[in-house]
Specification:
- The complex is a heterodimer of chains A (about 200) and B (about 280).
- Chain A has about 200 residues and is of the alpha/beta class.
- Chain A is built from six helices and eleven strands.
- In chain A, the strands form two sheets. In chain A, strands 7-6-5-8-9-11-10 form a seven-stranded mixed sheet, with helices on both faces. Chain A has a four-stranded antiparallel sheet with strand order 1-2-4-3.
- In chain A, helix 4 packs parallel to helix 6.
- Chain B has three domains: about 80 residues; about 90 residues, Helix Hairpins (Orthogonal Bundle); about 120 residues, Orthogonal Bundle (Serum Albumin, Chain A, Domain 1).
- Chain B has a three-stranded antiparallel sheet with strand order 1-2-3, with helices on one face.
- Chain B is built from 14 helices and three strands.
- The chains are: A alpha/beta (about 200), B mainly alpha (about 280).
């Protein structure tokens, strides 16, 4: 990962969402991106130029644009039309983003498009986040990583976030080796990131 | 056999898919894969197939097809009859918020210049207050006032249009609770098909999110009604019967929404029965 002073950056064409630029590099804000927050906390998976990434819950393409600065190709899955319009704009100017409008809970919809990847990054608001991670495992190469960001509040608003964390952990443990789990405070509230290996 | 965007792959042979990007995109949309049989494509297969000559061409072609499919899907989603109605409801709510906030600001401003004026103990509504301010204001204050009055005109026209469209898009819901309330409920649900998939209990408390989450997290009493409270059958019902009316009405709305979504025609027989049920629960027409 590229750091300039204490700032995480990526290098690519700037102006995607009004991000700051220092000495020609795009600043990657941890308060706006859960993946950036993870790197700020000293965790995460090193992104390399040869990497293939499946990004579930691509939304408006802000974090996707930073990931695409680092890796070979990003398969960006998003199902809502409004954010997808923004994502398409970003993909129009970045040749290594492959935008896919589909529901991450139904990977069979994009099974004919997405190749085997080295990293799955999942950041979706859904009550079945663990199920989505498990269903998409088929795309992960042996030894590949899954970064699963869990919005505990979309699983159960009333339960304690810590209880949700252990519930999700128990759900994915049979299919993935959990290497680490990290709360994204102070950058994001009630979000926990699992780093797993297939 | 596995079907991929570039062709069909068998144990030992590969059939390349031909055609322009549009034809390829249509072919991809028709591919059905079983969730238990996902085998990701390998780009080298596409090269063996003769579909591409190198990896960069593989990614380039795939990207073009995906962008095309996404554009088509977005267009299809926006073609729904309910999508513009949702925007109109949002615009109406935006106007209400802005006009009320500005009118409050203007009233405070006016009373600094006219300390002896008060709005209490005076018969009449907000319209009269605005008219009174119109008599004694000038410059930017007058312009702001005219702006608020103009917003109110726009709102009236927009509300009529929403009512007309709702009668066409949501005939059964509209006939139960009126076009405007029906459109609001549909917009809050996120669309007609989302509304048709909601249980009645959710429809009953749509728009009471704060109260619902306070109930779930802090154990306050559960909300009895959300947007449907705006319908006179609920808010005119005797206090003790409101919850019951809201529940019965929500139950009928859930069915009405499904008729609207899947049949799209007014069912007068259903409406007649529903009206009688709501009436016997305490909600007079």
């Amino acid at each position: 990962m590229i750091w300039i002073g204490d700032a995480l950056v990526s290098s690519g064409e700037a102006g995607v969402y009004g991000e700051r630029v220092i000495s020609g590099h795009r600043v990657w804000d941890p308060c706006r991106s859960k993946l950036a927050a993870l790197y700020y906390l000293g965790k995460g998976v090193e992104l390399t130029p040869s990497m293939r990434v499946l990004y579930l819950g691509a939304a408006h393409g802000t974090t996707v644009s930073h990931v695409s600065d680092y890796v070979e190709v990003v398969y960006a899955v998003e199902m809502a039309p409004r954010p997808m319009q923004d994502l398409l704009e970003v993909a129009g100017r970045r040749r290594n983003i492959i935008p896919i409008m589909a529901d991450a809970a139904h990977p069979e919809e994009y099974a004919s498009l997405v190749e085997e990847v080295d990293l799955i990054f999942q950041d979706v608001a859904s009550p079945v986040q663990a199920g989505i991670a498990i269903r998409n495992r088929a795309f992960l190469s042996p030894g590949g990583h899954l970064i699963l960001v869990v919005k505990t509040r979309s699983i159960d608003t009333a339960a304690r976030p810590e209880d949700v964390e252990s519930r999700i952990g128990a759900e994915i443990r049979p299919r993935y080796t959990i290497l680490d789990s990290t709360w994204l405070i102070p950058y994001h509230r009630d979000h926990v990131a699992f780093i797993c290996k297939r | 056999m596995h079907s991929y965007w570039f062709g069909d792959v068998d144990e030992n042979c590969c059939t390349r898919a031909d055609g322009d990007p549009d034809a390829l995109a249509r072919r991809v949309s028709s591919i059905r894969t079983s969730p238990d049989d996902i085998a990701p494509p390998d780009w080298r297969l596409a090269r063996e197939c003769g579909a591409v000559k190198d990896r960069s061409e593989y990614l380039g072609k795939l990207r073009e097809i995906c962008i095309r499919m996404a554009n088509d899907l977005i267009a299809a989603r926006y073609r729904g009859r309910d999508t513009e109605l949702i925007q109109m409801v949002m615009a109406l709510e935006g106007i209400d918020q802005a006009a009320n906030q500005l009118a409050g600001r203007l009233s405070d401003w006016f009373r600094i210049l006219h300390p002896s004026e008060g709005w209490k103990y005076r018969p009449g509504d907000a319209r009269k207050v605005l008219a009174r301010m119109g008599e004694d204001s000038a410059g930017p204050m007058k312009e702001l006032l005219d702006g608020i009055l103009r917003l109110r005109e726009i709102r009236a026209g927009l509300a009529r249009e929403i009512g007309d469209r709702a009668a066409a898009v949501l005939p059964n819901c509209s006939s139960l609770v009126g076009g405007l309330v029906a459109a609001r409920i549909m917009a809050r649900a996120g669309g007609l098909s989302s509304l048709a998939q909601l249980p009645a209990s959710s429809i009953q408390v749509l728009g009471a999110r704060g109260a619902l989450f306070a109930h779930l997290t802090r154990g306050t009493p559960p909300p009895k009604h959300g947007i449907i409270y705006q319908h006179r059958r609920v808010h005119n019902a005797p206090r003790g019967a409101r919850g019951k009316v809201a529940r019965v009405l929500a139950g009928r709305l859930a069915i009405a929404a499904r008729i609207d979504c899947y049949r799209g025609m007014l069912d007068t027989e259903f409406i007649g029965r529903a009206d009688r049920m709501i009436e016997s629960a305490g909600g007079r027409r």
